[in-house]
Amino acid sequence: MDIFEAINSQRAMRRLKPDPVPDELIWKLLDAAVKAPSGGNRQPWNFIVIRDAETKTKIAEWYLESWNTAYGPFRQAALASPATAGTFSSADHLANHLAEVPVLIIATVNVSSVAPVSPPGASVYPAVQNLMLAARALGLGATLTTLHRAHEDEVKQLLGIPDGVETMALIPIGYPVGKFGPTARIPVEKVTFWEKWGGARER
């Protein structure tokens, strides 16, 4: 798939089929992830692939608790607004069905290996984006979420993640129920300045 086609049609796919995803495709996603740049090329990432039903169920319980705490109070208003109803509904679906997703991938960072001037995410999220673009190219749905981090200590204990390593993202992977793109975004002209803040240029 052309890279621009993948970028322009990549969406957060939160409604995923329970159908199994072959290991061969998961390895392709991970191969793409580790080709990403990182500060000083230190590559401080690791990826945990989770298929075990019991493990997914436990993470899903923590995830749903975090979702209800963070977004539950806004549920009625979010679903009533045309501007937010679709996104909220799909995110709510994921929160209530995370255990059914065939594959969860957790991206981690070894904090001590991050370049001194770099925030940890700068050396991990490019790899996550590579992974998600590869998923789009392969017809797999994915989204980046961090709600599990409200239970970071419990997740680390469950997965045997050592001290000094933090989780940075949880990426559900599966065949999507819906269709990819096009995406709705703020026009680039409204978020781009030239030479200094507020500087405009005609396109």
Entry keywords:
single chain, 203 residues, alpha+beta, four-stranded antiparallel sheet, 4 strands, globular
Folded structure, characterized:
The protein is of the alpha+beta class. It has seven helices and four strands. The protein has helices spanning 3-9, 23-33, 53-71, 75-80, 85-97, 125-137, 152-159, and strands at residues 45-50, 103-110, 141-142, 165-174. It has a four-stranded antiparallel beta sheet. The longest helix is centred in the N-terminal third of the chain and has 19 residues, at 53-71. It is globular.
**What is the CA-CA span between the terminal residues?**
27 Å
Largest sheet: 4 strands, antiparallel
Which regions have little confidence, pLDDT < 50, spanning 5+ residues?
none
Name the helix and strand elements from N-terminus to C-terminus, one letter apiece.
HHEHHHEHEHE
The tally of beta strands, per DSSP, is 4
Beta-strand content bin: 5-15%
Spatial extent as radius of gyration = 18 Å
The gross shape turns out to be globular
Helical residue percent band:
25-40%
Overall mean confidence score, pLDDT: 96
Order of strands across the widest beta sheet? Answer: 1-2-4-3
Which structural class best describes the helix and strand composition?
alpha+beta
The total of helices stands at 7
